[in-house]
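Hi R.,

Here's the chain you asked about this morning:
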Amino acid sequence: MVSSLHSRTGTRVYAKAVTEGRSDGALSDEEGEALRLALATPAPRPAEPGRSRDRIAGPA
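And the predicted structure, written out as tokens:
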């Protein structure tokens, strides 16, 4: 989990380990919600061999 706090004087970035959907440390309400949403979203399927996901249609 990566979180950042922005202020006029700077930005602080924090990282918390998440393994198998669980954090070793306490998560803020916002971090817990972000983790819940991430775990509820299916992972994208890998591209088929020999095919690119970002291929742009056009002349061959």
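Residues 2-40 form one domain.

Let me know if you need anything else.
M.
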